Amino acid sequence: MYSPYETLSLRRVNMGKIDKVLREMVIANQVKDIDVEGKFEFDNFVIKGIGEEFHDLPFFYQPYTIVLPQRKTTIVVDLRPYNGTSLKDGIIHRMAGNETVNQLLCHAISIGYWREDPQQFIANQDLPLNTYGSLVAETISRRLGLDPEATLKVMAAFQFFYITRSVIDPTNLNDDDIRLYATMISRKMKVDLSTHYDVAKQFEPADFKDLETFMSKLRMLAWSPRLAKLSAGDLVIMLAGGWMGQGNPKETMMVALEFPPCWLSLNFICAKNKFYQKLPLGQVLKRLDRSNALQSFVNTNMVNYFGRVYE
Description:
Order of helices and strands: HEEEEEEHHHHHHHHHHHH
Largest sheet: 3 strands, mixed
Number of strands: 6
Radius of gyration: 20 Å
Structural class: mainly alpha
Helix content: 40-55%
Distance between the termini: 30 Å
Oligomer: single chain
Strand order of the largest sheet: 1-6-5
């Protein structure tokens, strides 16, 4: 999965018109630099923005990727819905303190690096893997009243699902792959290998295709009768209200459940801005902040990925 528009929440949205208009705009150099010329140009991709009205272009709230021959991959962000952005002399200027726009740019940068090497990208990030399993499992447990054993199994299962988002075709996973990923997760979470391997072995590779198929299998497992009616749609509704900001925060949270580049950007904003630590994700992050883990996470990502957003 290389795009937020492949997720369960957005894959049924007809993006044909937006795709056509954005391709034409990229070819005609009508998409704009942000802050200063060339600021968001990276080795293998460039981030451009839309900051003025185009009558034929509806708003879109997640970064959109355009790939054309003999051009760098262009990741376009729509900055029209956000306060504090303006277009002057062909450059989009933004208000530095608008964390919704900052998150959108972090998401776009994450997509650029994700497209280059998703497995390496996800392997470099321990904290988002931990928060993903914790937030999802705790939310389900609280709503459904799961016992501790079932909650731990759900957490391990969702962490495995998260890791498999970096696999081009998770339905082709073999036992060696499953053991490898289970080992990786267990080491990151500092738990015994059996914690994740035993859970992952209860799924077939086809179950990791997407959130819908994964949840279908989860309902069939005998971990708790209270999981029997939990659908992917139910889970999305449970968690969608866990983000805030301008634009479409519910959509952003729904996308993040299936798309690690978006999940990373939410974790980064929460870790960097104490105001966001009031949110459910922020509360999980604060609880996991041992040995200065949050500051280390922020510093590493500022150096490796997101420094330009805050320059």
